[in-house]
Amino acid sequence: MIPSIKIPTYLARRPRDARGYPIPYVVQQPRGEAPRFPVVDLDAWRVCVTQRRCALCAREFRGAISTIDGCLITEGVYFIGGPICADNRLFFDPAMCEACARYAIRVCPYLALPSYNRTRGPEAFEGTRHAPSQVVEVASASVKRPARFMLGRAPGYTVRHINGDKLVLARPWLELEWWACGERVE
Ligand SMILES: [Zn+2]
Fold it and tell me: Which residues sit with Cβ closer than 5 angstroms to ligand 1, an ion?
């Protein structure tokens, strides 16, 4: 069932899946097939990160300027992750605009985190996904989900190469909220 939460304007322009959910821009969708929610399209990933676009609606962030290692974004950008992401600020998903991030965390954090469950290596990377050469695939839906999610606003991000993977490192948080089951808890 689709919760009765209004889909933000730009996200509402995205195609829908069979359930009625908007299909995030970064989710891989082979031509003529159903979207592969657990799989991130790496071309779309690159577009979002380098052109400073929202991972869900693909809208360009206003007021973004490039820096030597990444970008600064005047209005701030949003990230959703598990508890460890609040500390390490590392994400596989590119940043989101506020409207999309708030929609995703209320309706389904997995919209924003299509391959959230993919974890690997040291615990420090729990809650981030890694990018093999072509696609990032979810391990299994049965992997335990965190009890709560963080929603962070950052003034931009940089790209980090970690163990051969590219991850998005959010700049230090301007604000951090905690959510569980679609409700803000802290
Ligand atoms: Zn957006």
Answer: 54, 56-57, 97, 100
What is the Å distance from ligand 1's center to 121 Cα?
A: 30
149 Cα: distance to centroid of ligand 1 (angstroms): 18
Report the amino acid identity of residue 113: L
pTM here is: 0.81
**Computed over its alpha carbons, how large is the radius of gyration of the chain?**
15
Distance CA 80, CA 93 (A): 9
- Can you spell out the DSSP letters for 18-73? TTSPBPPTTEE--TTS--EEEEEEHHHHHHHHHHTB-TTT-PBPTTEEE-SSEEEE
99 burial level (CB within 10 Å; 0-12, 13-18, 19+) = buried
Quick one: CA dihedral 62, 63, 67, 71, positive or negative?
Answer: negative
77: CA distance to ligand 1 center in Å? 10
The Å distance, Cα 56 to ligand 1 centre, comes to 5
Ligand 1 centroid to residue 147 C-alpha, Å = 25
Tell me: the pLDDT tens digits for 47-78?
Answer: 999 999 999 999 999 999 988 889 999 999 99
